Each structure stands twice: as C-alpha cells, then as structure tokens.
C-alpha cells in the first residue's frame, strides 16, 4: 500500500504507467474497434496515404497499417513479455541456486552464463534464429537465452548479498531445508531488482524482436510484428513513408512508456533513492 | 558576556513539500561562546546532525531551512548569499563528521586532501603566493594529532587507515583550517572505546589551542558529561533542556533526561554477583583448540580468524565475549553454531562431536543452537509479518497444528512484553527495541539450549537498551539457557555476564569470572581495555571526572 | 571529366570466383562480363553476333567453325589464339572441373584447333542453343588465357583473372567491392573511364540512398518500390524493361496435395496475378501464364491459356473435383526473408486461402534453407524463379523435362521430353520456337508449376551518365566500356 | 596504550597493486580460453544441425548436383562432423582459421577477418566514444540539476534515446541529416587510414545510431550513480572544507562515480557489437558484423567460427580492460 502510494508520487513512473496502459489497451482492444482486420487486403487501395479511413495509411497489400501496427504491437509485446518472463524465472532460479550453494554448482552454472553473455546479444539471437528456424516460439527462446545470463547474474549477486543476512542465517539455524529457504526467504527479497531488470529487459527485448524481424528473421507472416511492419515499410519507404514512420513511432511510444515505468519502479525499489526522495 | 560566537533562534528544518512535508527540527534555540563546548545529546533521529548541517548549510536541496535568527560572531548568517557564506564555511566554521571513513574521498590519498584544504585556506586568507610545502605541513599536523609515522600515512589511501587514524586525520584537516567554530558530529561513535578515549583527549587540547567554540554532538551520556561545559538534550527535533553539565546530571528537569541518566547509571552499576552457575553440571559445549581460517579470495590471502581456542560453555551460564573490532568475536560465535565449518580443533555439543557434521546431520541439533543478531531489522524477512516469522520458528520446532501455533505465538509475544497487534506488523513497522524482543522470542520459540547474542543491543538506543538486556537476563534465568554474549561494550558485558572471555587477534587472551577479570585483569590488553571504563563508567561520578570541560585536565599517562 | 566511375552491385555482397568456369552467382557474372569476352555476344536487339569470333560457319553434322579476330590482347598483353579457346571449353567440360556451367557444353563432342585463329566445335548432332551459350552472358564460356591460367593456378586466377575484356580486376576486397582498371589495349578501343569502383551493397535500399547521396554513380538493380518515385527524380535516370525471368510457385508433384492436377489448377485460378504484380513488385512487371517470358519474343505465346487467370468460381469447381478437401490442405509455402520474395508467398497464400478456404501458411526461412529444401524435394510448395536465362531450353528443357536439372517439382511427361529434345536439335530459328511453345503449352495445361509473373529489370544511373544499354537478362559490366559522363 | 591504533600499512606502490593483477589476468585469460573453446564448439555443432548447405550459398541456386558434390569434397564437408571440428580446432591452434566456404570462397578466413575488423572496430569505438561523451554531458547535467528543468530535459533526451531502436534511428538519421540536410553521407565507409576526417564524417551517422541508445543507458546510469555519490558524506565533507563546487563535482563526485559507470559501459559492449551488425548493413560498412551475418546465412562455418572467436575475444578484452581501469581507479580493490 505504502509503496503504491509512493509510486503514485513518482511523476515519471506515473506517466510511464499511463503510456503503458494506453498502449496495452490499444493493442488489446484496438484491433477489435477498427473496421479492417489486419489481414484484410484491398487491392484497390495499395499504399494509400493516411486518411480518415486509414489513419496510418495502407501497406503494399492494401492492409490497414493502423490495425496491423496494433496487432503487431500485441504480437511484439507478447513475444517480448514471454521471453523476459522465461528469462527472469529461469535466470532467477539459476542465480539463486548458484548464489546459495556456491562452490561447484556456482562454477558450472556461471561459466555457462558467461558463455551466453560473451556473445553480442543481437548476434546470439540471430544465430539461434538461423539455426532453429523462424517461429514465434524460437524468437521467444532466442531472446530469453540472450537475457538469461543477465537475470542469473543479478539473482546471484543479490543472493550473495543477502545470503549472509541474519534472517537467512536464522532460517538456517531453524534447520529448514535449503530449497525452502531459497523459495520463501531469498526469492521474495531479490524480486525487486529482478522486477526492475525485467522492465528494462522488456524494452530491450522489444528492440531485439523488432531488430530480428527487421532483418527478416521474425515471426511468420501474415502475423504482423512491429519489426516486420517496419521492415516492409523500409522497402517502400520512398513510395509510402507512412508505413515505416508510423510503425517506428509506435515502437518508440511503447518503449517510452516501458522505460519511464521502469524508471519509476527503479526509484521505488532502490532504497537509496527512496531515502532521498 | 560578549557577543556570543553563535546564536541560533527558532531553527526549523523540514523535508518534502505539501502533504508530504515532514518537519525534523521544530524551532531549536542554541547559543555558544568562544572556547566553550556545548554538548548535544539525544537519541538517534532526534535531529542532532540536522542542527549542525543546517548551521553549515550542508543540507541536501530537498531540505527547507527557516530560522528566526542565526548569528555567527554577530553576523546574521541567513542574510548571506552562497558566495558570502562559502567564504565562511571551511574558514571560520568547520564540521567533523560522524563517519571519518566516509568523509575522505576514497579515490585520493590522505596527503591530497591536506593539499586541497590548505590551498583553500590560503586562498581564503588572501594569500597570494602559495607556500607550496603542503606535504611537510600535513605531516606536521598529522603528528600533532598523534598519528605515528605520519610521513608514510600521508601517502596512503583512506581505506588503508584504521578508523581511529582517519578520525585523527580528519581532525588534523579541520585543524589546518583553524576555524572559530567546530561542529563535531558524534566523532567517536564508530570507534572502539580505546581509540575514543584517545581522540576525546586530543579534541579538548585542540579546542583549547584554537580557543574555538565547539558543538559536540553525541548520544553517549558519559562522553558528554566528561567533555562538555553545557549540555543540550534533544528529542524529536526539539531541545528539551540546556544546562551546565554538572547541573544536568545532578538535577535533570525533563522526564526524558531523567530516563536517559537513569539508564546509563543502571548499566554502569555492576550486577549482583551470581557466583558461577552451572559449575557442577556437565558442560553444554566443549570447544577444544578451535581454529578457523578463511580461505583466500581474490587478491586477499587466507586469513586465520580464530586460533587455538579452548573454552567450555556450561549449562545456564552467560559468557561474555569481548575484544576490539575484528578480533574474531562474531566468527567464534558463528563457528559455535556451525554456521562456519572450523578448520581445526573440535566442537562437542552435549558430548557429541559436531565439528564436521554435515548440514543435513546438523539439522536436528540446529534448533538447540540459536542466535540473536546485532541488527534487529536485518534478522527478519522484511516481507513477512512478525507472527509469520514466529510461526515459522514454531513449525521448525515441530509444532504443526495451526491453532497451537497461534496460541504459542501470542504467548511468545506476551513473554517479551509485546502486544498481540505487534505480530500483525512488518519488520519496518516496529522500533529497534521491539524488533529485538521479537528476535529473542523467535530464538526462545525453538527451545534452544544455547543462544549466541552477537552485539544484540549495540544498535539500540540507550533508553531501550537496558530493557532488552533485562529481558535477556530474565529469559536466560527462567529457561536455564546457556548464552554467549558478544559485545564490545564492557559495561554491557559486566552487566550481563557470569564469565568474560577476551579475544585478541583471534586468540583467547583471558577467561574468568566477571568480577575477577574486571578487578584483576591478567593481560595488558585487558587492562588497557578497562582503562576506558574510567570515563565511560563515569556513573560513579558523572560530570566530575572527564576531559576537563570546566574541571581540571585529567592526567593521562601514555 | 572524372576518370573514375562508381558502379555498385546492389542486392548482393558475395563474389566467390571470377573464373567463368566456376562462377555461378549473378554478381560474379556482373563482373565477368566486363573482364572477359565470349566468342559471341548479344547486340542491342538481343541478336547473337560475333564478339571474339570474326566468322561463324555451321558444320555439317553439328557444330561450328570459328575464326577469331586477329590481334585481340589479353590483359597481360599476350594475344588470343585458338588454343586459349580450346583450353577454355575443354576445361568447362572436364569432369574434374565440376563446373556449374558444364551443362551449357554438354552436347559438345570436341573442340579442334585448325590454326592459331581458327577452331571447330563439334557437337553430337545439331545443337541449337550452342551459339547462345557461347555469348558473354550467364554462360561461363567466356574465354580465359591458357598461359596465364596455367602459370597462376586456379585459385589465384579466380581472384585476379586475365581476360580480354575492357577492364581488368586490380583490387578485390571480399564482401566489400572490387576495383577495375581500363585495359588500354582492348581490341575495340580503350574505354573512357580509367577506373571503375564496384562496391557490393547488400541492401538494395541502401544502394538507392547511396546514389541519392552521391556516393555511387549507378546501380545494378533497383528496389521495385522506389522505381516510380525515382523516375520523377531529375537527378536519377531509371533504365527498365521486362526481364528474362519467370516467377512461379514451385509445387511438389510427388506429394499430396499437388499430386492432384485439380488442386494445382484450382490454385492457379484462385489468385489475381495483376494484384500480385502490384502488391509484390509495385507494378514493375507483367503477369505470366507460362514459363517462357515475353522477352523471348519468338517463344512467347500471347493467346490466353486456360486456368491462368483469376476465376474464383471455376477455382472452387476445380477444387471440388480434387480428391483433397480444401480445409484439409494445411501446407506451408516456402519463401525466404529477402524483400519481396516474402510478400510473393504471402499474397499467394492469402488469396488462395480466401478463395478456396484452404489453410496454407507462409513458411519463411532464409534463402539457403529455401534452396536446400527445394533442391532436395523436401517441400510441398514454394516460391521460385530463375534469372538471366537466355535460351528457351533453359526454361523448357531444364525445368519441365523429366531429367531437367531444374525440375524440382518432379514433373514428367514423355511428350514434353520429346518436344524439348526436338527443339534442342532444331537449328533453324524459324522452326525451333514451335517445339518449345508446344511443350510449354502441355506442361502448363498440366500445371507443372504455377506461373505468376515476370519482373522488370532496372538500373539506376545518375542523370548525366550515358552509354549504358540494358539487356533483358540484366547486364552490367559489359557496358562499362561505352559509358561516359554526358 | 601504545600501539593499539592498528598496524600501519605501507603506502601501496603501483608494483604492489600489479602483483596480483598478473595472476588475475592469467585466470581471466584461462577462463576466457575455455569460453572460447566452448563457444566455437557450440557454434560449430549448431550450425551443422541447422538446415541449409554452404555449397548452395557458394554456388547459388544455379548449382548443379555435380558442382555441389565437387564442392563438398573440396572442402572436406563429407567428413564426419567430429573430424571436421577437430580439424578446425587443430588449425586454430596453429593459427590457421581455415578457408571461407561460401562468403569469400577459398579465401583464408584469417585474412578475411583482418580485412573486416578495422571497420567494425573503428565504427564501434567511434560509437563508444560518442556514447561516452554524450552520456557524460547529459548524465552530469541531469544529476547536478536534479529535479530542475535541465534534469527533465536531459532525462527526456536519454529516455528518447532508449526508445529508438538502432535500425529505426538509422533511418531517421539518414532521412533527416543525410538525404534531408545533406550533412553526412547516407552510405559507405572511408578507412581512417585514407582520411581520418573523411572516416569520421562517413562513420558519424552509423556511430550515432549505435551510440544513441547506449548513450541513453550510460547517461541514466551516470545520473543515478552521480546522485548517489553527490550524497556521499565525503562530498558533504568536501563542501564543509569550503572547497569550490566545480572542484568537488569533478574530483569527489565524478571521480568516484567512474567505477560503476565504467562497469556499465563494459557490460553494454555486447549491445554495441550487436548494434554494429544491423547498422553495418544499412550503411554498407564492410565490417565483421556483416561478415558474421553473411556467414550465418551462407552456413559458412569457418567464417562463423572465426567471427565467434573475434567477438568473444573483443568482449573478453573489453571486460578485462574495464576491470583493469576500474581497479586502477579504485584504490580499494586491486582487482575484483
Ligand atoms: N534527507 C532527509 N529527508 C527526510 N528526512 C530526513 C533526511 N535526513 C534526515 N532526516 C530525518 O531527520 C531526523 C533527524 O535526523 P538526524 O540525522 O539529525 O538525527 P540524529 O539526531 O543525528 O540521529 P543519529 O544519532 O542517528 O545520528 C530523522 O528523523 C531523520 O529520519
Ligand atoms: N567471511 C569472511 N571471509 C574472510 N575473512 C573474514 C570473514 N568474516 C570475517 N573475516 C575476518 O575475520 C576477522 C574477525 O572478524 P569478526 O567479524 O569475527 O570480528 P568481530 O570481533 O566480530 O569484530 P566487530 O566488533 O567489528 O564485529 C576480521 O579480520 C574479518 O575481516
Ligand atoms: Mg546524526
Ligand atoms: Mg562482529
Ligand atoms: Ni594511551
């Protein structure tokens, strides 16, 4: 309750939340409100400029760009969200395991994370896509693998920080099982930095997904994704600049919201900032 | 009297705006003469630091400061703009901060700090040609404050000096500025008693030399008593009373002052001798030649934290573990509980060897060995209600029925003199004293045979300390627990313990009944340690002996 | 006048080998055309005319006798002789060379040197496309220097080849570009530009911005979407014409559901080819109803073919005759992630699904996987198309005959095989097209592939650049010699 | 009470601090080597598991079956996988990265990589430089004017930067600054060896496109860290000595904010390298990122392996360098 109140005070966070909510609402119910489906082709209106009928214009198949951007946004957000979720859950688990047990477990797990982390993110994702084929599931897996080591490291470091905390020691002294300690004592207390990282990661995941789709390694058509629409729009930019511009601005707005929200969350969870606020 | 050096009236400091505004000083009045020392005492959070910071305009931007008057040597400070004030700060007024380690730029050597400060002092004095030989002057100053091998020390980084040395260096820095007003904000709280003693001595000398006015902030009654001419008592942003040091102790006006003084006196008076409990019973825990080596990590070599410790803990006795910071008290405590695995020696619990027992094998024994930690806040999962933390412990003790758990939780809370509603709170919603009570309750819930209390009261305010100590002692007697009481506070050790063990560099230097150790210590180190009690145990004669506020200077043989 | 021209190859950035026998990628030929000459060449009207050859005389029983132009110099200054020509052809034909272009000379029995400037190519019976295959096009029969090749070795030669062309390669930065320098002793006179920089620009769109930004002077291709806009730009000259190519849906006739002719016909009638041309290549092309493109004018059949136009009712009716139910057809149409190829599959799938109620999906992979799967027969349907093929046999013979090496769809009809064989042997240009037209008609009736459209080819030049004559097979470096800034 | 004030450590000389550094370096290099081995093995076996064939990429869609067979024999692609990998590994240890299969058929990969590396390094460093400079300015301005208009503006710029994916930024820059205003070339790369000014001019837009999101991340980090150091007691102490404000900001606040700042910079190197790949393609920069993309698409595993090695080494070197700089800047830690 108090943290919610504190969040309400945070102007950045609130603006971010507002944008995110609007974006979420738009991508969730927006497509249903538009008279054109994102896959409805109209060969009479190929590359029509923005108008009242098509506020974002149409693409090369005469599809309504607005409805494609909205649905594409939904797809991109879903993929990024799923990827971050997978990375966060798996990464936290690996990190806690590593940080709690240390020693051998830690060595092996962290070397694997190091390996993943050594690859430039985009290249790692790209390689995975080329190797395992293009599909939404593979994109999710690729992005998740890119972020896995980040979450694992954060979880491990925070676990290391609190594993010597008296309340953990007290738990150990009660003779509780390590798994129980990890689950009920450690996990709730490292969730804040994980959450903040997740919000930052979400923005990067969207960029990564869009980047992959942009160079043609994205979801399968006709499903739109923001990067895919941009990639198409880039091809006929000089003829129909609105496709790239509108989808590009859409992605920027979504990222803006998520970033601001992330800032707000960070301010909220960082005890140092909190003290001084 | 002449114009006071400092005259503050109606100082108010607040943070935040609008509905979120929180005032932390509600109109503070203080005044100070040249050469005089004004003590400010009061519990943590009462606004002592804020007063000093407001005076030097060092508060963060988020703070709003208002005052009726603030005169420095007759000049109204509040009329000065940033530039004019900047010309005063660091030149005529200076502050010594609570945390000497934090006051130095960790990236720069000690000498660098001196050079910058001296340059600044020269510019302020309008000195055109810099004297240049900052280093020599720095060394001289450092020698003056009693830093040995000052030549070498100026080339060290702050983290390479001990807290005591840094505190001295900080004082030397302020000396270099030669101010008229020194605000010293708890300059010795972080130091152990031995060092504190030296530094306070030094302080007085310097003040005398500069004939400066000094505001000395502390929460330690004894220190204030022995150092200050006048003492102001603060609580919750208000000055409750100001009086001559002697008078304050003889005739406190305010209830809060009375409470503070009573608590301090109580701790200072030795407990009634209790003999040596458990002498005839078999020892609960036998420690034989215990040693512990921390393995090397990164660039740091292996470190022998415990060395050949032999000690029996008898049923129902309280052993005090004292020694300077870093001597291995905590490490020994944790080794006893098998939170660390000893590197050598044996550890027998009820005759059973647990030196190398695996975590799994230890689990049944664990409940018998409990710990109460220094940081009451940190020893609870911040995301759990207090009653859930207690319930957790009860479950670990084998209680399964939820009705019984509820009943026992309530009983435990009651036993540590808390209301049931305290169980419904989160850790941050309780005060330190209350938290430590719950911590005791949790330890007791498991029905242990041994409790290790690691600096269990050092983070608590003086005013609540005695209460918690009494609770400890009551429960210990009631349940006939054995207890290892770790502290660096000799008063506390004497108040609580049956036997005292003195650790020094990981070795057991001395072990004996409390009375014996205090009366006829067998090692030099213990003797040195006890010397510090002379003033801190001023309870025998508060306000009389001291560092010569108004009294005579205390002879001190070095 | 500047003596350097920057002519970018756009849409590609890999050149592996400039050895004609080994070359097979389009950008490789783009360069080879300027570095080498063939015995023959195409003139501006796409007629085959002698290039290094002076005279060409048909021989009884198949083959030709060629006399060479005297005094033709290689880049290293040595003179071209019949030995070089024989060496070139023998090498392409030799099994150990494993030349991807060996098929062009498959019917050649032997190459005989008569005198230093005369040679004979003997074939197994009449072999109609031979002269076409000896042109300086995507053929691999460009003449190399025997002496230089033998002294340099294949590896080095393939990077710094010695030819007779107007330009020689003087620098080659892998994946990045090449520098060509004028061959001053070129047999038709020294070229205008001293140096030609040939950067390789992977993204066509980047090529356009580079041209607009003045970093390059011309491109080898243009993104179809930009063409209409660029034509309005006075600073840029757009060359365009229908190209020698056909884009089609390759269907696997060995597998369900395309083993059923009715499915293929239904599919062919279920989509609008005109819309496809608009949406996929922005009108830069024409619809196709067969494999032979309009640019092979003599071979092109204008009269409408059945099943080749959009007719939803007929499509449904045809589908009803099939043994498969439309809603049970859940196959993927393979395409790859390069620009319009993806849209090609996408619009096909969308329209067919809409008309017939099938459940086709688009299966985007990368180009390499798409190639591999088509070649190995691991596919149901995919978009496909060949580029720069200059002889009718390369369409009908290679794609539609049982043993044709481009026949990925597994089509087999003895009648078509026979007609193709006859066409191969018919040297009379007047009679030859008939065989191919007939063969194509049969195959299209059976819908061996589903033809979609032919796309235009483009070159973009800065407005003052002149002398580039565009050929429908999409030529490039062969024109550098005649180019100048006007 | 004579010597209770603690032992006196010696002033630490540089050689004292570099002693453990050598050991640390050795350890890092060793573990880096292991990562390298694992990385190449992972890349090799996954690329082999993927569909596609380098022969097709090398020979194009016109390739005849005979040509493909000959190609496979020529490059030993018909040998068992393990044997192929071991052969590569053996070569690697002898400094031979093999021949490119498809991207630049037959060309020694080492040579190829050396040809491409300078462009990537140049653009990457340029981007890093821009990101650092931009972020230092923005972050410091924001932190010093916390809560004021300047802070809002600087933070907004930073948030805006993060909200622009590099490829989208590239287009905005191309159409705005290049084709629109004609300030910078839209395409192409000039080697710094040919003309440093020309190289900077040509690489400005791509570097900026990569740098913008990074600058934003750095700036936000710096702002947060700086706000934290500004509230450190030593800053208050420095003010209480009356030291001038700019001096305090520079030598107390910024100086101590550098370690966490640089740590973040080091961590972001993988994004910079990733950004380079996309931006290289858009701007036609002949770098190692494009090479790796081509290698992946062409299944040219020798090229891919070599690029993997290069990228892993870059990341390793940068991280070690950052650690070293941090160790140098922070007297407390010799090395972490
Ligand atoms: N930046 C700040 N914002 C809001 N409140 C603050 C801030 N700094 C201090 N306070 C509050 O002001 C009050 C007085 O703090 P101050 O530091 O003066 O106490 P103190 O008497 O020095 O305590 P201690 O003995 O613990 O040093 C406390 O309640 C504290 O929480
Ligand atoms: N986990 C550890 N690894 C390495 N060295 C340690 C570790 N914990 C403590 N030490 C070292 O062991 C020594 C003893 O530490 P310990 O915490 O027991 O001291 P202490 O007497 O409790 O001091 P304090 O009064 O400051 O709490 C110290 O020098 C400390 O630096
Ligand atoms: Mg304070
Ligand atoms: Mg301790
Ligand atoms: Ni002494």
UniProtKB/TrEMBL annotation, chain A:
CDD domains attached to this UniProt entry: TM_PBP2 (cd06261)
Coiled-coil region: none
Domain of life: Bacteria
ABC transmembrane type-1 domain residues: 73-262
Transmembrane region(s): 12-34, 77-100, 112-131, 137-155, 194-219, 239-262
Classification via Pfam families: BPD_transp_1 (PF00528), OppC_N (PF12911)
Membrane topology, from the record: Multi-pass membrane protein
A GO-annotated cellular component: plasma membrane
Keyword Transmembrane helix: yes
GO biological process: transmembrane transport
Keyword tags: Cell membrane, Membrane, Transmembrane, Transmembrane helix, Transport
Main subcellular localisation: membrane
Cellular compartment(s): Cell membrane
Family (UniProt): Belongs to the binding-protein-dependent transport system permease family.
PANTHER family documented for this protein: OLIGOPEPTIDE TRANSPORT SYSTEM PERMEASE PROTEIN APPC (PTHR43386), PEPTIDE ABC TRANSPORTER PERMEASE PROTEIN (PTHR43386:SF25)
Protein name: Peptide/nickel transport system permease protein
From TrEMBL, chain B:
MF terms (GO), sorted A to Z: ATP binding; ATP hydrolysis activity
Gene Ontology annotations of biological process type: peptide transport; transmembrane transport
Occurrences of domain ABC transporter (ranges): 8-261, 287-530
Location(s) in or outside the cell: Cell inner membrane
Cross-referenced InterPro entries: AAA+_ATPase (IPR003593), ABC_transp_ATP-bind (IPR050319), ABC_transporter-like_ATP-bd (IPR003439), ABC_transporter-like_CS (IPR017871), Oligopep_ABC_C (IPR013563), P-loop_NTPase (IPR027417)
Matching SMART domains: AAA
Bilayer topology term: Peripheral membrane protein
Keyword terms of this UniProt record: ATP-binding, Nucleotide-binding, Transport
Keyword Nucleotide-binding: yes
A Pfam family of this chain: ABC_tran
Cellular component, GO, one term: plasma membrane
Family: Belongs to the ABC transporter superfamily.
Protein's name according to its UniProt entry: Peptide/nickel transport system ATP-binding protein
TrEMBL record, chain D:
All residue ranges annotated as the ABC transmembrane type-1 domain in the record: 117-322
Gene Ontology BP annotations: transmembrane transport
GO terms under cellular component: plasma membrane
UniProtKB keywords: Cell membrane, Membrane, Transmembrane, Transmembrane helix, Transport
Subcellular location: Cell membrane
This protein's record includes keyword Cytoplasm: no
Main location: membrane
Positions of transmembrane segments: 21-47, 121-144, 171-190, 196-219, 261-283, 303-329
Bilayer topology annotation: Multi-pass membrane protein
Family: Belongs to the binding-protein-dependent transport system permease family.
Name under which the protein is recorded: Peptide/nickel transport system permease protein
Organism this protein belongs to: Salipiger marinus
